[in-house]
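L-aminoadipate-semialdehyde dehydrogenase-phosphopantetheinyl transferase, Caenorhabditis nigoni. Tokens?
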Amino acid sequence: MKIRWAISLEETMTSPNFQNIFRKAILCLSETEVEYQKRFRFKEDALACLIGKLMPRKAAVLHTNRQWNSLEFVKNESGKPSLRQEATSVPRFEYNVSHQGDLVVLATGETRIGVDVMRIDESRRETASEQVDSFKRHFSEDEIESVKGGDKSDLKRWQAFYRIWCLKESILKATGVGLPDGLHNHTFQLDPIYEHIPGSSTTSSLYFHQSILQLQWTFEESYIGENHCVAVASESQSKEFVPFEMTTLSEMIDEADFINVTADPDEELDAFMEKPNKPF
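Tokens:
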């Protein structure tokens, strides 16, 4: 089973039933998970954290047929979260979550997987070309050319920049090695004919680690809506593309078990509502 879900933070917080949904969500998380979301200063980040904990639980129930209250999530030595499962468990449940802009996204599968989402932001002080110059140590010459080359608008250049950034982040998250391995060691050869714009999708990008082609990985690239670029890295040669489905926080906790019965949902809601919104 392969799941691709996305949830809008704005739509969640403006839902007429948001406060009741939030109260129930608190009861469906572990005490540790509830405490963790409290650390965030802004509403959007705290809510993204909460949603990012609930999405894998819902997906794991569907994938493994286990009960909500039997699921335990752990982190490896690199800090990558995973579902605790027997080494011989079939099917395997692998997942990854990303949050940026207005979206929280989840991708699941049976092999190593990573996902990254970025909102196309043209309001930055620098141009896309200036941005890629400041990050050039992380990009190959071909990647830099894909952003700076040709006669195209700054929007097209930003789309190219965020596309490459999502690809790099998705493979780092899939492998669990993180930034210490260096973004410059993970490069991509892009299809020169394909135009990556809202409404389009591709699995054509080729991945190189330290200049060696890695054919065991597939990268699903697309947009969610008009301004969120997303990439999914999966350890598979299938080249199958699975589109993202917009869903809701309410759907994540539908039929969920209460596992944090000692929590005070009213107190948690009050603490959340006192947080400021992001000023940017």
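The first helix runs from residue 9 to 13.
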